[in-house]
Amino acid sequence: MAKGHRSQIKRDRNEQKDTRPSAKISYARVSVQKACFVLDAIRGKDVKTALGILAYNPRYASSIIEKLLKSAIANAENNNGMSTENLYIEECYANKGPTMKRIRPRAQGRAYRIEKRMSHITIVLNER
User: Fold this and answer.
1) Disordered: where is this region (predicted)?
2) pLDDT of residue 99
């Protein structure tokens, strides 16, 4: 149980809040493994380079992550007043989301399960 008055607990929680600009997409229809291939390519890069990599990457996840990165850049400019030239990708990761289970009919009355996986993708930026 937390100690102190309710307002003090909230004040302490808000002091520890992360102020780095970020963007998150939940329930993206791409598996974590496939999203991580693209995220590994842009991790640690500056924003301009990352957008170039994502624009020419043939994977489906790159279009989702490109839109997410543009959202994070807009958050940095509008909410934190940061300059685009100094931004780089500090963290980017994909967490496992729920899995949709589907049935595929097979021979002799059997049914095989198809798992359509989802992921939650997060991008955190910072200034150099």
Assistant:
1) 1-22
2) 96
